[in-house]
Write a structure and sequence with these properties.
This protein is an alpha/beta fold. Helices cover 36% and strands 17% of the residues. Strands 2-1-3-4-7 form a five-stranded mixed sheet, sandwiched between helices. The protein has a three-stranded antiparallel sheet with strand order 10-12-11. The protein has a two-stranded antiparallel ribbon with strand order 5-6.
């Protein structure tokens, strides 16, 4: 079997899981793009794909990642390699692992129309509203696979089921709706229902972590990522922070166009904390 995940941290996680159970052994493959944000129009064409790539490249300017990170992978080639393996070995199967979040589900919707010819050999494990035990022995409901301890996956494997013929018919229609809507942000509303949102969806989460005092932009970024309940990536959040600066809602000091560490930010329109005392009345 071949395991499919949608987050880098889960590649190593699934390797730990497969090491615990020989019946799960097999390579782990990641779909790397985050289809929960950004343009989706025309991704079945080279022009549309390059437009999405250019969008990511624009957002990534000044990021701490290698300059060739965006464009260094092509999920289309990953899927082509998977299909080649399935064609070469009639016994091979895919296991798609999804957490209850917009990132994984959006990736699933992009992936599934491309696998229709392998109906019956594509399994899905959608850990939707399922209880797990954390490191403290308490029950919790994870949104992401990486929140789950490796040993807990051995119980979860029993939930694997084939993607049905009906799903292979309906889920591509859901993807087409997302493409036609082409919202800049997508949210999971429950089950597998994805709904579009404005680009400003996460702005309030950023603003919560700003005050009238100057802070490093990277500190605001880190605090936002750690505290927000509905997660997205750091590149998108930093882009939104810069957009808030451009709109005048946030002030910046330093070189905002250089790199993420080169500027500080604070809420716009806030008075300095050190104010002059009123004059003593005469007489």
């Amino acid at each position: 079997m071949i395991h499919i995940v949608f987050n880098q941290v889960e590649v190593d996680l699934m390797k730990e899981v497969t090491a615990l159970d020989e019946t799960l052994q097999g390579p782990v493959v990641q779909i790397r793009d985050d289809f929960a944000v950004g343009p989706l129009a025309g991704l079945d064409s080279e022009e549309g794909w390059q437009a999405r790539l250019a969008w990511w490249q624009e957002l990534s300017e000044g990021s701490p990642y290698p300059g060739d990170l965006v464009g260094s992978f092509d999920d289309r080639k990953t899927v082509a390699a998977l299909k080649a393996q399935l064609n070469a070995d009639p016994e091979e199967v895919l296991w798609i692992w999804m957490g209850q979040n917009q990132h994984d589900v959006s990736g699933y919707y992009w992936l599934i129309p491309q696998l229709k010819e392998f109906q019956g050999r594509v399994m899905v494990l959608y850990l939707n509203n399922l209880p797990f035990i954390n490191e403290k022995g308490l029950i919790f409901y994870p949104s992401w696979l990486w929140e789950i301890r490796p040993a807990e996956f051995l119980k979860a494997k029993k939930l694997a089921r084939p993607v049905t013929l009906s799903e292979f018919e309906i889920d591509p229609d859901e993807w087409n709706k997302l493409v036609q809507e082409n919202s800049p942000v997508r949210m999971l509303e429950g089950g597998k229902k994805i709904a579009g949102r404005e680009a400003s969806f996460y702005d309030d989460e950023i603003l919560k972590n700003l005050t009238g005092e100057w802070q490093k932009a990277t500190r605001v970024l880190s605090n936002t990522l750690n505290r927000m309940k509905i997660k997205t990536g750091d590149i998108f959040i930093m882009w939104r922070l810069k957009e808030l600066v451009a709109s005048g809602r946030v002030q910046a000091e330093g070189d905002i166009d250089k790199d993420w560490k080169s500027f500080d930010v604070r809420l716009a329109g806030k008075k300095e904390t050190t104010e002059a005392l009123p004059a003593e009345p005469e007489g």
